[in-house]
Design a protein that fits this description.
Elements: H1 2-18, H2 31-50, H3 52-60, H4 65-70, H5 76-79, H6 85-90, H7 101-121, H8 129-157, H9 163-192, H10 194-201, H11 206-215, H12 230-245, H13 250-259, H14 262-268, H15 271-277, H16 282-311, H17 313-327, H18 329-337, H19 341-368, H20 375-385, H21 388-416, H22 419-431, H23 433-436
Helix pairs in contact: 1-9, 2-3, 2-8, 2-9, 2-11, 3-15, 7-8, 7-10, 7-11, 8-20, 9-10, 9-16, 9-19, 13-22, 14-21, 16-17, 16-19, 17-19, 17-22, 18-19, 18-21
Amino acid sequence: MWVTLGIAAAAIVLIRLLAPRIPALQPYLERESLAAFFLGVSSGFPYAMIGATLTTRLAQDGIDKKTVTAFTLAFLVYNLKVFWAWVVDGVHLPVIGRLGQRVSWMVLSGVLVIAAVINLALVDPAASLSATVLAAVLVGVAGATFDIVIDAYRIETLKPYQLGTGSGMSQYGWRIGSAGAGALALVVSARMGWSAAYIACAAFALPAMLTAVLMGEPVRHREPTGKKGLSEVWASITGPFVEFFQRHGAMLVLLFILVHKIGDTLANLTFRLLFNDLGFSNDEIAIYDVGVGFWAYLIGVFIGGIAYAKMGLKRSVLLALVLMGVSNLSFAALAAAGHSNIGMAAAIGFENIASGYGGVVVVAYFSALCDLRFTASQYALISAGASVIGRFVTGTTAGSMIEGFGYVNFYLLTTVLALPGIVLFWWMSRTGLIDAAMGTAGGGSDGDAETAP
């Protein structure tokens, strides 16, 4: 972890040195943007633990494809977080609650993530798949709770004009946390085994916890209003959803959230299976998937931050949707070409530039949809809906589809599945529904109206 954070610190120092000559870099050095970066580092690593890293671990243990892809159902826990996000918004923790609503939950959920990852480290998939499934689900529950707090803290800390830059820094952090944990796991597992690898990665929970303690409670955090007693509890549960669905065009916005990333999610959760079947070694995966992908993603994030500022929300998001859909074609080409380091680097590079760019502008849009009174609950609803269909399809049918008609046709299908989201967002932009459904976090009605200094 320290090597990863060292690289990140070096990048921040470089930006600080270049900022006086390149004004566009200055927003990345603001206190809130730097906080978003460290929050992202911790947000990314649980995903890696039950995503690509666990897929590689299971594949190397000889587990069949259908079983491996079924493990992606553990990600569905992230999609269920909306059902307990209201607890993070409305329940005050005893003792540590004096640190503040967001800070206290950040500390608690971080501890839970560390415990869950260590628990996953101690199970043996070859000896008991059921115990591994349970351990993966527990990491998902802890990681999803951690994400609820991290997302709320980020949105409430950032001012409206910082949403683009802050989302970019969060994506930088997420990628560094995910790639750093994934690379560390591969390197340590090759020398000391998978148990030691997972235990070492548990330290990636610390950056978000320390950031919250040092920064303190977000200035824009607003307690939901309501009467005391049962009525307040009921308002905490229903208030976020009532407010969201009362907005003009809310159902179409939710439909877009549900369908916009089906193809991208379906493709991303199967890459390691493709690499394993094409005969790539752990070292090659670490160099090209993790290494090249890492730097390509950072480039994409930087482009996304600039595009969001220059093109505006609507045009930058529409371009992101097109790029993320087309990027899946590169893996169809890789599958057709076979084992090729150049081909892998090109496919991973294109996909990660598109994902980095899209991560910034789409996350900024989703953040702007939130009402500051219900940030945790509403962003949980939005982020859960963004990938639920893709994850469900991956866990239930992806392995069978790959075995049935091959990788090339599978990735062509994921490209086609991107079209509904592109068309729907274009139509929403033309009809004004994007603006009509905006929340107070984006400077909408009754929201903060800060502008960049």
